[in-house]
Amino acid sequence: MRQCDTSSLSVADAEACQAENYEGASIFWMRRMAALGGEEATMAHWQVKRDGTLRGIVEVIEHDS
């Protein structure tokens, strides 16, 4: 987080993202060490919504400059 520019930091503020519906999406992030059972298992769990339908998940792994 210390290496992010100011515009990138806004997506790390969950409350602000939810309040403003940033970019028309809900944005969630977590650290790898918090992904219990591994990254793939965590993403598979979070992809399923309460009604059984699936969320689209986009993983950002690198910033193109």
Give the helices and strands, then pairings.
Layout: H1 6-9, H2 14-20, H3 39-47
Secondary structure tally: strands: 0
Query: Helix count?
Result: 3
- Beta-strand portion reads under 5%
Order of helices and strands: HHH
The assigned structural class equals mainly alpha
- Give a quick account of the main beta sheet: strands, pairing sense, barrel closure: none
Distance between the termini: 17 Å
Mean pLDDT: 75
pLDDT under 50 segments (min length 5)?
A: none
Residue share in helix: 25-40%
- Principal-axis shape equals globular
Return Rg in Å: 13 Å
Explain what this protein looks like in three dimensions.
By secondary structure, the protein is mainly alpha-helical. The chain is built from three helices and no strands. The radius of gyration is 13 Å and the shape is globular. The longest helix has 9 residues, at 39-47. The two termini are 17 Å apart.
Give the tags.
65 residues; mainly alpha; 31% helix
What is shown here, in short?
With 65 residues, the protein is mainly alpha-helical.
